[in-house]
Specification:
The complex is a heterodimer. Chain A is of the alpha+beta class. Chain A contains five helices and five strands; from the N terminus they run E-E-H-E-E-E-H-H-H-H. In chain A, helix 2 crosses helix 5 and helix 4 packs across helix 5. By secondary structure, chain B is α+β, with helices and mostly antiparallel strands. Chain B folds into two domains: about 170 residues, Uridine Diphospho-n-acetylenolpyruvylglucosamine Reductase, domain 3, CATH 3.30.465; about 110 residues, CO dehydrogenase flavoprotein, C-terminal domain (Enolase-like, domain 1, 2-Layer Sandwich). Helices cover about 35% and strands about 25% of the residues of chain B. Chain B has twelve helices and 14 strands. In chain B, helix 7 packs across helix 8 and helix 11 packs across helix 12. The longest helix of chain B is centred in the C-terminal third of the chain and has 23 residues. The mean pLDDT of chain B is about 95. Classes of the chains: A alpha+beta, B alpha+beta. At the A-B interface, strand 4 of A face helix 2 and helix 6 of B.
């Protein structure tokens, strides 16, 4: 089958990016292969592991369960876009402080998921924090430190908001 | 783990979408949220020759809640319906069930109508539609038809949707006054499909006796299994119902199968337990109490 290619324009981390892709190109592969943004990791490719989570118009979604053509004209934020002016975001700093990553493979997905979660719920309960990370797998099983990082990130975010 | 090749169509009007679907025929598949379809494509379990992406079609993302119930459009995401206070007020079972659908990130993208069309007998949304006696509106180039839940689910992952049709919305009826609902399920891991699950609806009479009670069971048959237990429950107050007899009646009406996750006997046992829990919670909600 001769595959038709589609022109897509995505605003990725605030920058307008263009690519020409077949209809079946997953957003995860478009980001990694077509745009060279390899910070988004690809684990299971069927929506279970959460490593490929990015923000689509501000909402976390599985980039492996979204076609690049569907995202045409929309805004994407990847892990590369979380830092501000070269400074890690509160969620990123909390992960470093709390040792919430070991091998780091799952980390981009956790960071994107939690960035949106703490924006919508700046002071989560323990149960809400658990629910927020339940869709992301960490094979190093560092979940306790990841949960600590959720609350630490909330603190850092509140300090910055108050400053 | 990449989708097989297909012809991609991105219609921008409903008419265009229906034209493309009509031309694609049996090889056409609608893409809305993609949270069930794209895993199937990635795992090469499905290979449609035409994908009709309806995400650009305007007017399909509506959530219309009123005294008679909630009509949910084809592009209304799980998360949007879950968060809608109007939908929760008109039909509380929607939010109760949606909180059990996969994970929040999946619900940001997945659609309620997509879950219905996918027709997984382990999924929550088909059970909700079946329990409430709702319907799905199917549009094609030649017109529209409204298919009741009892006729819509025809087998595991099979529905009454014909080639060339697009499920444009689904209607979840409201319940009468003094009614309550609940959804209980057991899954191996949080967010997984349920090993067994039960949606319940209970209506009380003026003396707070159970006037009607029914459950819809997931993962225990080819389609959601609706069991009316009004006879076993009423007419008496929830506190004096013989709940063991109710559990027995539900277990008698289902034909679960065993697999690597659970034996048929365990599913049958679990469904009885969950039915009683859900019915008790639904009766509490009908009295206007927290369960």
């Amino acid at each position: 089958m001769n595959e038709t290619r589609h022109h897509v324009t995505l605003t990725v981390n605030g920058v307008v990016r263009e690519a020409t892709v077949p209809g079946r190109r997953l957003l995860s592969d478009c980001l990694r292969h077509d745009l060279g943004l390899t910070g988004t990791h690809v684990g299971c490719e069927h929506g279970v592991c959460g490593a490929c989570t990015v923000l689509l118009d501000g909402e976390p979604v599985r980039s492996c369960l979204t076609l690049a053509v569907t995202a045409d004209g929309h805004e994407i934020t990847t892990v590369e876009g979380l830092a501000r002016d070269g400074e890690p975001s509160p969620v990123q700093r909390a992960f470093a402080e709390c040792h919430a990553l070991q091998c780091g493979f799952c980390t981009p997905g956790f960071l994107c998921t939690l960035t949106a979660f703490l924006r919508d719920n700046p002071a989560p309960t323990e149960e809400e924090a658990l629910e927020a990370v339940a869709g992301n797998l960490c094979r190093c099983t560092g979940y306790q430190n990841i949960l600590k990082a959720v609350h630490r990130a909330a603190e850092l975010q509140a300090e910055e908001g108050g400053a | 783990m990449k989708p097989p090749p297909f012809h991609y169509h991105g219609p921008v009007t409903l008419g265009e979408a229906l034209d493309v679907l009509a031309e694609a025929g049996p090889g056409g598949k609608v893409l809305a949220g993609g949270q069930s379809l794209i895993p199937l494509l990635n795992m090469r379990l499905a290979a449609p020759s035409h994908i009709v992406d309806v995400n650009r079609v305007p007017g399909l993302d509506g959530i219309e809640a009123g005294p008679s119930g909630v009509r949910v459009g084809a592009l209304a995401r799980h998360a949007a319906v879950e968060r809608s206070p109007e939908a929760a007020a008109a039909q509380p079972l929607l939010r109760q069930a949606l909180r059990l659908v996969a994970h929040p990130v999946i619900r940001n993208r997945g659609t309620v109508v997509g879950s219905l069309v996918h027709a997984d007998p382990s999924a929550e949304m088909p059970a909700v539609l079946a329990l409430l006696g709702g319907s799905v509106r199917l549009a094609s180039r030649t017109g529209e038809r409204e298919v009741p839940a009892a006729e819509f689910f025809t087998g595991p992952m099979e529905s009454a949707l014909r080639p060339g049709e697009l499920a444009v919305s689904a209607f979840f009826p409201a319940l009468p006054a003094r009614s309550g609902t609940a959804f209980h399920e057991v899954a191996r891991r949080h967010g997984d499909y349920a090993v067994a699950g039960v949606a319940a609806a209970v209506a009380l009479d003026e003396d707070f006796r159970i006037a009607a009670a029914r459950v819809a069971c997931v993962s225990v048959g080819p389609v959601p299994v609706v069991v009316d237990v009004t006879g076993e429950c009423g007419p008496r107050p929830a506190a004096s119902v013989d709940w063991e007899a109710v559990a027995h009646a539900v277990r008698d009406r289902i034909e679960p199968e065993g697999d690597i996750h659970a034996t048929a006997d365990y599913r049958r046992h679990l469904t009885g337990v969950l039915a009683v829990r859900a019915l008790l919670d639904a009766a509490c909600a009908a009295r206007g109490e927290e369960s």
